[in-house]
Amino acid sequence: MKPLRPALPCLQARPDGSLLLSLHVQPGAARTELAGLHGDALKLRLAAPPIDGRANKAVIDFIAELLHLPKSAVIIKSGLANRAKKLLLTGIAEHEARSLLEQNRGSLTS
């Protein structure tokens, strides 16, 4: 029997139907990609530098495209000036977000 995969600790459903996604962002990487888990956060390697808000814009652009959401549905709730960020996601079901994140992961359960 195949063991059950643990739920992604980086994604939490909220009572209002929105989702909270915890990220650990590594700006200035060679390319933008998901890189597994960093504690309870999803690690995002980001090609954009952390200058003049470019990294924050790139985080929103990448996550919105990955989850097939409009950019307005992805809001940085906390961590504007930090690597640890919490994103508020609206307009997507938890199971759909988990599925899309797992499809595009490096190794989210490692």
Automatic annotation (TrEMBL):
<dbReference type="InterPro" id="IPR036591">
    <property type="entry name" value="YggU-like_sf"/>
</dbReference>
<dbReference type="InterPro" id="IPR003746">
    <property type="entry name" value="DUF167"/>
</dbReference>
<comment type="similarity">
    <text>Belongs to the UPF0235 family.</text>
</comment>
<dbReference type="Pfam" id="PF02594">
    <property type="entry name" value="DUF167"/>
</dbReference>
<protein>
    <recommendedName>
        <fullName>UPF0235 protein CDV28_12527</fullName>
    </recommendedName>
</protein>
<dbReference type="GO" id="GO:0005737">
    <property type="term" value="C:cytoplasm"/>
</dbReference>
